[in-house]
Amino acid sequence: MKGMIDTTSLDDFYQKNTVALPEGIDKEIGHFNVFETETLFNKETGTRIMPYSRRAYYKISWIKGKNTAEYADKVIDIRENALLFATPKIPYHWLPDGTDQAGMFCIFTADFLSSGKTGIQLDELPIFKPGQLPIFQLSQTEVTEIEYIFRKMQRELVSDYKYKFDLLRNLILELIHYGQKLQPISALGTAHNASERISSLFIELLERQFPMESPHQRLVLRTAKDYADQLAVHVNHLNKVLKEVTGSTTTEIISNRIIQEAKILLKQTYWSISEIAYALGYDDPGHFSKYFKKQTSFAPLAFRS
């Protein structure tokens, strides 16, 4: 049986479940927490609660159970114990196989890790780069070592140690370096539904860029090549797949979503045209206005009014 995911916001998760917001975490830059997988998995319904937004959080998981991970061009089968690293910039589908799911995982923002003395830029680490296979099979000895790190995270998180967040950052780094020394699990190859999977992951990655919540936020991925690089596929293959599945080119889909967001910002915010243009990746507000008019027949100010 393939499990389903019950997605909820982090704030809602803390309010509706027995898991407490870590003491002092609201005073920190960024966010961190550690969870037991069993406590978030409903064995009767086969559903699991997702206590965070994949758009914002990095995740390191010790997985105990049968699962399948589907990336754009790879399918990875997990039969027992594994260590998985996930970045919000690379989407994947996670399919639990059965209800016997255990293990632990931690979530954290880039700000949490970079705000301490480590000064680490996560996306520069090999384990979080596109095209990698960030899933590692664990021996029983390795399971013991990994579980010890996660248990230590749990203990430190509720301690009154003054520098506990610095220690937690070091434990995150210990897991990262542990994983980078392991041999990745071999992929099963491309499944028969690869086109649908690539299309689905592309749309998920596109939607992770939105909504634009601040004039200081900026669209990161704007071109077909940007998305192909994150999905670790060739841009021509991505274009071919999307044309087959959706009837539209990659550029057309991206453009339509940007225009949709522009309309929302024009109607629902008081941002200036320059602020909207900047957020959507345009350095020149005039260029944005011309493009918006070409796509909608309205100038931005006319559409707003």
UniProtKB/TrEMBL annotation:
Residues 196-305 form the HTH araC/xylS-type domain. It comes from the Bacteria. This is AraC family transcriptional regulator. The keyword Cytoplasm does not apply. The keyword tRNA processing does not apply. GO terms for molecular function: DNA-binding transcription factor activity; sequence-specific DNA binding. Pfam families: HTH_18. Keywords: DNA-binding, Transcription, Transcription regulation. PANTHER family: ARAC-FAMILY TRANSCRIPTIONAL REGULATOR, TRANSCRIPTIONAL REGULATORY PROTEIN.
